[in-house]
Design brief:
There is one protein chain. This protein is 43% helix and 9% strand. It is mostly helical. A hairpin with a 3-residue loop joins strand 4 and strand 5. Helix 5 (111-122) runs antiparallel to helix 8 (160-184), helix 8 crosses helix 9 (186-194) and helix 8 packs parallel to helix 10.
Length: 282
């Protein structure tokens, strides 16, 4: 009969080998581990057939390769030629792009500034703290770039309840911010519309490519608004006959404020103004 210490040693070795065997069996099954971003991407892969092209961007993206030819990109679109001719077009799509716009009554230097201001609002932070991200405050932070705004997010740390609350609000808040940015900034609007119907993905080092459906929704809304504006714009001058003979003296003059509405020069819904001009009969 083996000594008790020897029996204990054998039992220990047996348990260790058993655990190792089970571990190898589990590993051999190759069950993938997914974080939320990966799970979202897998779900979107099933919808890939509805997209004919994909563009990927982030704050330090290069202009080359051409649209649709970069990493994780595919497809082509007639507007990609013009899109590729715009310097820094991929960077323009990111939240770090510098271009002032107004959101919720305050001016912001980048979408990243507005994003973290909204995050602090969700935490019920003091307005004086939230305002530091806006240019109206005159703070050094507000005049910084997108990276400065991101670093400032650590001023306040969210607890678990606040994180859960923000997770529900994040998408809607970002869509509202992006809508204000891309409707007010001429360059940003032009770049976004030249992406055509491409699937838009934002690259992050730790998450990979995240599908930015909210930016696609902004593009769709702008496209719909442009279509409606184009249909409602009077582009021709009509001549109405005037009773009493002679040359026509009633012309329909379109209000100049309505011109180029489709191109975003005028965002207001101003109806054409009818003006009557009197012309002396000869």
């Amino acid at each position: 009969m083996l000594p008790s210490y020897r029996q204990a040693s054998l039992r220990s070795n047996f348990i260790t080998r058993s655990i190792s065997t089970i571990g190898l069996q589990l590993f051999s099954q190759k069950k993938p581990y997914y974080n939320f971003a990966q799970a979202s991407r897998l779900q979107e892969d099933s919808k890939r057939m509805s997209y004919t092209s994909q563009l990927v961007f982030y704050s330090k993206s290069a202009d080359k390769p051409a649209p649709g030819k970069g990493a994780n990109e595919y497809g082509d679109h007639p507007s990609f030629v013009e899109l590729g001719s715009i310097s820094g077009w991929r960077k323009v799509l990111s939240n770090f792009h510098t271009g002032q716009f107004r959101h919720q009554g305050r001016m912001y230097n980048t979408a990243e500034h507005a994003f973290h201001a909204r995050k602090f609002q969700s935490m019920n932070a003091e307005d004086s703290v939230v305002a530091l991200f806006s240019l109206d405050s005159g703070s050094k932070l507000s005049h910084g770039d997108g990276l400065a705004a991101r670093k400032a997010r650590k001023v306040l740390i969210m607890d678990k309840d606040q994180q859960a609350k923000w997770a529900k609000m994040r998408g809607k808040a970002l869509e509202e911010i992006l809508h204000d940015k891309f409707t007010q900034n001429v360059l940003a609007k032009r770049v976004l519309m030249l992406t055509g119907d491409a699937k838009l993905g934002h690259f992050e080092r730790m998450k990979g490519v995240e599908h930015w459906s909210w930016l696609e929704e902004v593009r769709r809304r702008i496209s719909n608004q442009t279509t409606l504006s184009t249909e409602g714009t009077v582009r021709a001058t009509a001549v109405l006959p005037e009773s009493g003979g002679g040359s026509s003296g009633n012309e329909v003059v379109t209000d100049p404020r309505t011109r180029d509405r489709a191109s975003g020069v005028c965002d207001g819904d101003v109806e054409p103004v009818m003006k009557r001009k009197k012309v002396k009969s000869t």
